[in-house]
Q: What sequence folds into this?
């Protein structure tokens, strides 16, 4: 949804100057941050992430 909104704003927007464009983009970013910003939450445990790193490292060593 954000990309659609952003695309519509920039595609259909009529900007009289670079300053006006910058102000519009800044307002858009501030609005999106207020409406949809959320804290990041890990969905995997540290053990699962480290196991994945170990598997990737092992795979890279076998291929080289």
A:
């Amino acid at each position: 949804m954000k990309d659609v909104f952003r695309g519509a704003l920039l595609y259909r927007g009529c900007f009289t100057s670079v300053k006006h464009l910058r102000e519009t983009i800044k307002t858009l970013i501030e609005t999106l941050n207020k409406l949809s910003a959320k804290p990041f939450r890990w969905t995997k445990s540290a053990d699962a992430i480290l196991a994945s790193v170990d598997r990737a490292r092992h795979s890279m060593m076998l291929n080289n």
Q: What stands out?
A: Helices lie at 2-12, 18-36, 46-63. Residues 2-63 form one domain.
